[in-house]
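User
Here is a favour to ask of a fellow structure person. I am asking you to supply a protein in sequence and structure-token form. Please set it down just below, with no commentary around it:

Assistant
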Amino acid sequence: MDLAAPIEEVKGIGPKTADVLHKAGIFTLRDLVYHLPRDYEDFQQAQDIASLKPGKVTVKAKVESITTRRMRRNLALTEATLRDKTGAIKVIWFNQPYRAKQFDQDKEYYFSGTMALSYGHYQISNPSATLASDYDKALTAKIQPVYPARGSVKSQDFKKFMKTIENNIALIPDMIPNFEGRAEALFDVHFPETLEQARSGREYLATEELFSLLLAARLNREENQKLHTEPIKGDMEAFKAFIGTLPFKLTNAQRRATWEIIQDMAEDIPMNRLLQGDVGSGKTMVAALSAFMAANAGFQTALMAPTEVLATQHAESLAKLFGDKLSVALLTGSTKHKDELKKHIKNGDVDLVIGTHALITDDTEFSKLGLAIIDEQHRFGVMQRQKLLSKAHTMPHLLSMTATPIPRSLQLTIFGDLAVSILDELPAGRQPITTKIVSPNSTKQMWGAIEKELEAKHQVYYICKKIDDKGVSELSSVKKEVQKITHQFENYNVAYLHGKMKPAEKDEIMTLFANGEIDILVSTTVVEVGVNVPNATVMVIADADQYGLSQLHQLRGRVGRGSDASYCYLINSNSDAPTRRLREIERSQDGFYLAEVDLKLRGPGELYGSLQHGALDLRIATITDTKLVHKADMLVKDFRKKNYDMVEYKELSDSVRKYQRLTTLN
């Protein structure tokens, strides 16, 4: 079976379907066979209605009655009553009006969904429905895969595609030397006879995926150690004297991280270090000290930030910090007299250049770039980073910074080839943030507390999951909440912000908020990484249970940056008991602890998939499964020990390459 063949070769996939699949990233047969089921329906476990308990359930029943009605915001609500010989139960589908015409009341169906208590009675929400006679035949498996839908291509469509190529799966060759069983694993995942068989097949594929990731990290490390650059060795006495002039005391973590960076830069192998620190831990100060040492040794530093507002704030604060000891310049898209500034940069008149993507335009040249710093590195793509590094005549030292605490288990794998410095202390004077979970039916006290903060001339963030009310979700939206809040706080200046606004508009709003001209900013999570606003003391997160712990912690970190007490209100999306995520963030402000908990609760794919565009795309593996990580690591060591030629394993090479681009310098 040629896994590189286009999906158009599969029976049933015409041009329109292929176009939908292409948009979902499915181009080849390999992409298709690795589009794995997200769940399974076990019709062998079907229960009588009378014996159902809350949770995931499967019943075999007839549809006694069914109706569809339109709710507010054009939401279609389809309700049905199912009945078997033991009783009846209500089911409900949201925005699936076609269900009303789907069923023959004389026939039985398998319904699989989640049963829960709602408004005083039990119901099954959004169940799948399958005609029982199709699966009650003796030769038909009763373990049915449920595939993630992709646009108009539904789970049933993927089942048909897999059935078409079922006989070809046995022809798929192993990808990893001395690790047999790939074809069998794929078959077991798509056509299991038992749930244990599906689990075992998935475990093989997860190990295979971890192998590619760990091999990439190992190859990166080997390649980076071959590179050479100019060592940066500044005057340590001048460096210590500068630290002595700082208006604050460095934390022990800042001192340790700075020393690690200075030692790295003194080597002729280019530094490739990740500086990770919790929100407000002082990463910018460590970057500034690194830039001072580079300038002291005669080298320039480029610091690239994701937004113009953040770059401007960095430039203003560091220019003030350095005074006449270092020349600092700001280079962004809106910088005036750019041509003149670029001449000074090219001539070496500027020690530290802080900017946005303007730093990597073709006409931006440096005299002697020795240190490249990337702030919030997950906001930049691989090619953007490479273009910044190419501005140096020889490979510069690289310092990447992130405010996303990365659990140790992930550091050892995803960033296994990187040196990592951790800032796990907060500077003196930072106030703890009081965090409270709020029921949507009990917000009166919260609004009163916000009123008091506004009267004290403080500012407020209000975070929404959505921009507007399009679709069927009941979640809060920016456009709806800004109207409500404007009415409630009519004496205050309320503004909104979201990702679909033009960059100039977003920068203008954030600048106004940073300058104190906006009292309440209603926004999506675009403020997760943003400017420092010490006067903002309140963070409200609507539908907080819909976010992961790390993101909630990042958002909370937007406040508590001044000397005043700060507050974070987590509004639940319903009146149910708070989730474990909310309880954890209510009781802890330790970002690294929360990251570990979040990793266990949600897995790494969702948490860290955006650390670097196209980098960590784990679709199967769970890094917290230490046994599989160890197994994959042993396979990698055996692979390198036996010196296999990667050229002979094209598919493996392609799989490794997508991970290898994450941190390799060249």
Observations:
- Residues 56 and 114 are 4 Å apart (CA to CA).
- The chain is about 35% helix and 20% strand.
- The chain has a mean pLDDT of 87.
